[in-house]
């Protein structure tokens, strides 16, 4: 890799090393995971609308090609044959700058002999242009045996998402589509200025340049405000800017990543070029790099596994995920089993403290994840580099510079001189990263849910031998359990996990967790689903499990959003006939194998309670509550019904009285709704019940019959069932055009608008 100096200070041109990824078979896919929702307002930045526009110009030896620029652009030259020694110059403010040579990669790229290396085109490293209105190219080597020279220009407008993920975005408004991207005239370029603009580490109480503390920065931000954190994170490292967030066009990736069994070392690089870029220009530069490498050079993807800018921001590089040892294309011959990290810029002098701090975190995270001492050495076998022949064994520091394995100045003297302290500081931080290994599906899930923030550090190794071959691992604030049927899911310290524990974890009725804990329910409640049911929690009710038919019925009523609200008790069994019930904020659900599960609430439930619940005269409910006229309702039970209306309240009907009421049309008939309960203890063992339009009387000798209107009033005057007429023996009927009703001691006729009592 070539170092660049003077021209870049004037022109803000950033050169990147050649980034090549090997063509290989796709790695085994991870188990399918149900990803959690992001907590609070920290959401993944949407950079899906970022666009990169490609312009390709053909050139001949001895020809000068000029290209107009109006946005952040990444430019490069490709060819077939000999290196034409391309040169470039830029126009800034109407004045052309001096000619400079385009850098050609040395030492980066895929392993020699790989499929990707065979299909790649020769070319220069990409240059990022941020402040020029025009650029010219020419070939210095006019005698070169070169054909198909192409100038590749990839331009991208700064997006609002670029500004949002930049730590200096509070001073840099989002551009309109018509505005060219120009650097701020007072953008800091010296290390002391960078230090003033650095955000403190999480947990620090020192102020940053925005007058905010780190605790303030960690709080949720308004949707239109710039966030100093992105939503992506990985175990032990914390948050970084993901490919999706910086706007990677994944359709450009040309092959699946290959993986090694482990990462054994970290390779440190610099991209070379100017250090005068702004934070919000970095995502666009990365998009341009990706497009040049894939569309221009024919490579698979970015070569570095990770990149760091001078402000200490960390960016995802090569795709494939951080839970596997993805083989990059950052140090040809030494890509396998190494993690390539590049600091953006040229570092003939020391990088900023912010960038060094980020490298220390990455080294601590990688060494802890893969279980090695970053201050130790390792023996690697060369796959063929510009310094070591293929097959040669080389003893290297676990954290080494690109120049240690290739003939290059990379990562620059200033950064290379810091490698010793980076190793030492990385080791100091290693113990706070991962005290125990978190491998396999549990580890993949731990990283997917940002486990260091959600669960804390692991407090044990993984344990197997659970039911159905399951495994688990404990963390500071919870566990992750894995089973073949449901995958890996966490249970967080708190009331939901405490209840699951009381149910004997995976060995109890709930079984294994099958989702994460989800918040945001009504009244700030939360829930988690398990193999055998759910656990819901709210501050008012605590945590309670629901399962089986009772849970199904609760769900049919809208769960916590329905009339029942949250559960307020566990499920109680041991009721009559093997029944069970569970209480909720708004009522109960009772179940038996014969009747199923049905909810009761409000006035109907109160009336049922008066009768003795399932042990009373009505037995268990056999239906849900049904709505009737005049805002009424009814519910059926094993031995009767309960009807309710606002005018009458709730009253049970059963037996012969209920059947007679049904014959009259229930609440839609002449009697209307019941307005009293059934009263017993009448003359000769009789009973009656009052309705809106009359009564129904019953006795063992006469059965149940309704009375209403004038006949009922006349009967009452005779003394009801204790009088000479006794109990009714029929309902009203017509005889010879006259309404009549029979009683034990005679009958009453209604004619000429009067009641006439006839005794036998």
Automatic annotation (TrEMBL):
Residue stretches making up the Peptidoglycan recognition protein family domain: 238-385
Superkingdom field: Bacteria
Gene3D superfamilies assigned: Peptidoglycan recognition protein-like
Claim: Cell membrane is one of the keywords in the record: no
Keyword Phosphoprotein on entry: no
CDD domains given in the database record: PGRP
Pfam families per the UniProt record, alphabetical: Amidase_2, LGFP
N-acetylmuramoyl-L-alanine amidase domain residues: 251-412
Signal peptide: 1-26
Assigned keywords, A-Z: Signal
Compositionally biased tracts (Pro residues): 174-186
Region ranges (Disordered): 100-125, 160-213
Feature: compositional bias, Basic and acidic residues: 160-170
Entry's family note: Belongs to the N-acetylmuramoyl-L-alanine amidase 2 family.
Protein name: LGFP repeat-containing protein
């Amino acid at each position: 890799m070539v170092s660049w100096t003077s021209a870049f200070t004037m022109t803000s041109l950033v050169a990147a090393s050649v980034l090549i990824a090997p063509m290989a078979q796709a790695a085994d896919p991870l188990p399918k995971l149900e990803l959690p929702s992001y907590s609070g307002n920290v959401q993944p930045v949407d950079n899906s609308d970022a666009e990169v526009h490609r312009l390709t110009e053909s050139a001949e030896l001895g020809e000068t090609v000029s290209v107009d620029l109006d946005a952040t652009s990444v430019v490069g030259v490709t060819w077939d044959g000999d290196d034409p020694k391309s040169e470039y110059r830029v126009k800034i403010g109407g004045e052309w700058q001096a000619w400079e040579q385009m850098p050609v990669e040395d030492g980066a790229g895929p392993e020699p002999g790989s499929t990707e290396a065979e299909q790649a085109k020769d070319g220069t490293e990409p240059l990022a242009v941020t402040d020029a209105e025009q650029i010219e190219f020419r070939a210095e080597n006019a005698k070169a045996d070169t054909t198909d020279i192409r100038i590749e220009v990839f331009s991208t407008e700064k997006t609002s998402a670029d500004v949002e993920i930049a730590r200096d975005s509070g001073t840099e408004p989002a551009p309109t589509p018509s505005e060219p991207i120009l650097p701020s005239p007072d953008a800091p370029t010296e290390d002391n200025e960078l230090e003033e603009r650095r955000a403190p580490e999480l947990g620090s109480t020192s102020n940053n340049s925005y007058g905010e503390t780190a605790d303030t920065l960690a709080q949720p931000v308004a949707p239109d405000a710039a966030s100093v954190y992105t939503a992506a994170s990985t175990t032990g490292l914390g948050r970084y800017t993901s490919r999706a967030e910086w706007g990677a066009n994944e359709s450009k990736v040309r092959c699946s990543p290959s993986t090694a069994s482990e990462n054994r070392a970290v390779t440190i690089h610099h991209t070379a070029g100017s250090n005068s870029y702004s934070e919000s220009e970095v995502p666009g530069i990365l998009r341009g790099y990706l497009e040049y490498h894939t569309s221009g050079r024919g490579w698979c993807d970015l070569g570095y596994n990770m990149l760091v800018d001078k402000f200490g921001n960390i960016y995802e590089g090569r795709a494939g995920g951080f839970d596997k040892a993805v083989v990059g294309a950052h140090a040809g011959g030494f890509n396998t089993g190494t993690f390539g990290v590049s600091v953006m810029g040229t570092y003939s002098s020391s990088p900023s403290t912010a960038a060094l701090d980020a490298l220390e975190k990455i080294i601590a995270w990688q060494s802890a994840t893969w279980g090695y001492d970053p201050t130790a050495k390792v023996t690697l076998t060369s796959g063929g580099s510009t310094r070591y022949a293929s097959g040669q064994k080389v003893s290297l520091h676990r954290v080494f510079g690109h120049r240690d394995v290739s003939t290059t100045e990379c990562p620059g003297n200033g950064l290379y001189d810091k490698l010793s302290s980076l190793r030492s500081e990385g080791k100091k931080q290693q113990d706070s990263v991962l005290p125990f290994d978190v491998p396999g599906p549990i580890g993949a899930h731990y990283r997917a849910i940002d486990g260091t923030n959600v669960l804390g550090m692991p407090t044990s190794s993984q344990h197997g031998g659970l039911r159905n071959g399951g495994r688990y691992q404990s963390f500071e604030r919870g566990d992750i359990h894995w089973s073949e049927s449901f995958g890996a899911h966490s249970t967080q310290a708190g009331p939901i996990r405490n209840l699951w524990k009381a149910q004997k974890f995976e060995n109890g009725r709930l079984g294994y967790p099958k989702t994460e804990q989800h918040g945001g329910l009504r009244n700030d409640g939360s829930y988690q689903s398990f193999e055998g049911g759910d656990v819901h929690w709210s501050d008012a009710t605590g945590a309670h499990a629901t399962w089986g038919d009772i849970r199904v019925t609760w769900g049919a009523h809208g769960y916590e959003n329905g009339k029942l609200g949250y559960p307020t008790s566990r499920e109680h069994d041991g009721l009559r006939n093997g029944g069970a019930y569970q209480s909720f904020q708004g009522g109960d659900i009772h179940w038996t194998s014969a009747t199923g599960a049905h909810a009761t609430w409000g006035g109907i439930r109160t009336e049922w309670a008066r009768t003795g619940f399932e042990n009373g005269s009505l037995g268990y409910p056999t239906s849900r509550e049904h709505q009737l006229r005049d805002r009424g309702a009814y519910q059926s039970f094993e031995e009767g019904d309960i009807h309710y209306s606002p005018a009458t309240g709730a009253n049970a009907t059963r037996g012969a009285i209920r059947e007679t009421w049904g014959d009259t049309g229930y609440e839609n008939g002449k009697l209307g709704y019941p307005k009293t309960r059934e009263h017993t203890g009448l003359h000769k063992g009789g009973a009656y019940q009052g309705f809106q339009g009359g009564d129904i009387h019953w006795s063992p000798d006469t059965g149940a019959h309704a009375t209403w209107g004038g006949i009922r009033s006349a009967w009452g005057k005779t003394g009801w069932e204790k009088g000479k007429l006794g109990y009714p023996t029929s309902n009203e009927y017509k005889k010879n055009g006259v309404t009549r009703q029979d009683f034990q001691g005679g009958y009453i006729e209604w004619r000429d608008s009067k009641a006439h009592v006839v005794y036998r």
